[in-house]
Amino acid sequence: MSQKAQIGVTGLAVMGRNLARNFARHGHTVALHNRSYGRTKELVEEFGHEGTFLPAETAEQFVASLERPRRVVIMVKAGPATDAVIDEFAPLLEEGDMLIDAGNAHYADTRRREAALKAKGLHFVGAGVSGGEEGALHGPSIMPGGPKESYEALGPLLEDIAAKVDGEPCCVHVGPDGAGHFVKMVHNGIEYADMQLIAEAYDLLRRVGGHSPAEIAEIFKGWNEGRLGSYLIEITAEVLKQVDAATGKAFVDVVADAAEQKGTGRWTVQAALDLGVPVSGIAESVFARALSGGKDERAAAAEAGLPGPSAGAEHSGDLVADVEQALFASKIVAYAQGFQQIQAASKEYGWDIDPGAMAKIWRAGCIIRAKFLDFIKQAYDKKPDLATLLVDQYFLDAVSGAQDAWRRVVVTAAQQGIPAPGFASALAYYDGLRAERLPAALIQGQRDFFGAHTYQRVDKPGSFHTLWAAEGRPEVDA
Ligand code: 6PG
Fold it and tell me: Where would I find the 6-phosphogluconate dehydrogenase C-terminal domain in this sequence (predicted)?
């Protein structure tokens, strides 16, 4: 009997190629397919020594080379290209076979595809894969959704190639249908928020502290040894240390200051708006990227010479220590919001996602991997229905201990005209959460005045409306 593959990968650009190599390096026979066969041949020529590959020129050959239940990993651009690949392969598959979308698909697309393929007796698994090209090869964090029963046949293979922490794979069945891609999307939203906060910390150290990029690289290197230790802090030190070969200038000074975005952070905010979850940290990071890319309005502002204070005055404390505190507290807020969004979606869609398990599989392999995810895991292991991470003792102590410094940093940023929407919005969120009374009462009054939208009272149940135009403005039951 001709040799059969345990898993197949179609779409052999760098991510797909590296996933295929990773499976092969772990002793699995891997079927290969790509729209152009040349790329398939190249992979085998260059990496055939790493394991057993079964290159297929056609979709039919590819499917025929897979053992049952067939496991087909799709690694193509999210969107129509994914639908095209599904349309090409689904007719060739049989009951119980599975298609695994390892791209950054939108979770709503995954839910649609999973339902459609389930009707044909096929499994569809939307799997978030985080860690970029290096992660795909050496061990990503993998967030597979889809039917629980397909995880029995698929999970062991994914766990083999996933990053490990103390021997534990950074891969777990997240939940049904779109749950995996939803969690990956929120991972990316948190990634955006984390990156924005780091950028604001850099900006303050540069413009208020007068530190050079090389000096700030050393500061981040030191922070990476402590509670802020994470992949993003680590690479920030590397990026800031970099000198541009062509000019001899600091790399960060020759890069155009317009941040781009493929869209997953934007999706996170859109989903949060629909779920009613205030992910202000993620939202501010998406808008900060948009502002940085707003060429016309920034040029107009420059031409008009929008007035404001210049930076560089003395900070009212130890700037480096204060910024570290502000960064850690704001990061905790961003992660608390992200996990609240995962819990809200899990409730909305009936996914039964275990937030502690998500923190656990994010401890390695993914872009937001960080030491403090251990504390998030512990918090949810202690109390899975925790309303917000901010009330877990570890995080409560960390944020309350940071808040004087945090407030000094937000004041300095405002006084010296340095945009710090991440730090400031996180502080506003924290103060909003702990406020005994919010000015939302006035908003309810305004809404009732102009739109008769009714309001509730603090002293008795029910909904009420005031007859604002009537004599004496009587209140009536709504
Ligand atoms: C990951 C990354 C990756 C993501 C890009 C997007 O988890 O490996 O998040 O999936 O696609 O980094 O970057 P932008 O959205 O910033 O373009």
Answer: 180-469
